[in-house]
Design the sequence.
């Protein structure tokens, strides 16, 4: 019994180490991605006067489709409300949301796929037409306002248009990648 109890203690300790190691590996991957995103954002053309700031995500919304996140930088780092939020991958940096709330050490970012945000956008390869991106299904965007004569095709890049709605200035500078066309209707 003593040996079984000792082995169980050892198994519990090793399981804890595995969990800790997994968390550390995930954290390392996030930090490596941040470094890559920072380089991609710094290398991208114009952010409309915004200075690129890299930060880890501190918390996320609990819904199946994340609607918001809190990042680990805030007003003491120069973050201001209504700034665009970008994320990156190996394909490059792209718009994911807008800063809705800022404290001295953190900022809340509402995702454009969350259903409450609209973004003026265009498809550069489809002509000089502008449309409006909105989320009709959590996690997906739909672009409206593009005329039928526009040469829209699957796979074309979608970028911010730099215009606002109802006469308001856009918080999103023109030319920030948003995604790619997945279907045309």
Sequence:
């Amino acid at each position: 019994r003593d040996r079984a109890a000792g082995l169980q203690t050892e198994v519990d300790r090793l399981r804890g180490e595995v969990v800790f190691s997994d968390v550390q590996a995930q954290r390392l991957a996030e930090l490596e991605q941040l470094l890559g995103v920072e380089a991609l954002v710094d290398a991208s053309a114009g952010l409309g006067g915004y200075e690129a700031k890299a930060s880890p995500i501190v918390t996320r919304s609990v819904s199946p489709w994340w609607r918001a996140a809190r990042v680990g930088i805030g007003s003491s780092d120069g973050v201001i409300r209504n700034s665009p939020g970008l994320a990156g991958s190996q394909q490059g940096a792209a718009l994911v949301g807008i800063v809705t709330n800022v404290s001295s050490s953190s900022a809340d970012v509402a995702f454009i796929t969350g259903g409450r945000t609209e973004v003026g956008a265009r498809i550069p390869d489809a002509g000089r037409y502008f449309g409006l991106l909105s989320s009709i299904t959590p996690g997906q965007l739909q672009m409206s306002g593009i005329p039928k004569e526009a040469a829209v095709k699957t796979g074309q890049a979608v970028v911010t248009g730099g215009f606002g709605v109802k006469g308001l200035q856009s918080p999103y500078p023109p030319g920030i990648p948003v995604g790619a066309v997945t279907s045309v209707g």
About this structure: Residues 40-45 have pLDDT under 50 and may be disordered.
